[in-house]
UniProtKB/TrEMBL annotation:
It comes from the Bacteria. It comes from Thermoactinomyces intermedius. This is Mini-ribonuclease 3. One of its GO terms (cellular component) is cytoplasm. SUPFAM superfamilies: RNase III domain-like.
Length: 137
């Protein structure tokens, strides 16, 4: 059994929310890919990288930010503005920060136990990446 939280989800550091959100995002993507019938590990990894890269997550961030509640936008902003101290060598700083914001939001929704909204936003994220992001690119 999981231990109960010692704070409300909003009280956690945005980088901690992003840490959890990264795992949540990844499990949704892995589930999606397995459900699509992809079975070979190398194919799963190749396909997953299309969804979980900083660039792909930044595109999702831009596509959904205007459809979020004020509370969700605040978490997104806090995650985006958090100083992590490092940026992957294959990502622009702005993309990396926006992807951190998106992951913070997913971590927040997970801790808040808002499964319906988490599923809604993850379905949107998957659709955005699969269709290819065109608007505000």
């Amino acid at each position: 059994m999981l231990r109960p939280l010692t704070k409300t989800p909003r009280e956690y550091n945005p980088l901690l929310l992003a840490y959890l959100g990264d795992a949540v995002y990844e499990i949704f993507i892995r589930h999606h890919l397995v459900a699509r019938g992809i079975a070979r590990p190398q194919d799963l990894q190749k396909e997953a990288s299309k969804f979980v890269s900083a660039l792909a997550q930044a595109k999702v961030y831009k596509a959904i930010e205007n459809d979020l509640t004020e509370e969700e936008r605040d978490i997104l902003r806090r995650g985006r503005n958090a100083k992590s101290g490092s940026v992957p060598k294959n990502a622009k700083v702005t993309d990396y920060r926006q992807s951190t914001g998106l992951e913070a939001l997913m971590g927040y929704l997970y801790l808040k136990k808002d499964e319906q909204r988490l599923h809604e936003l993850m379905n949107s994220a998957i659709e955005i990446v699969e269709k290819g992001y065109k608007k505000n690119d």
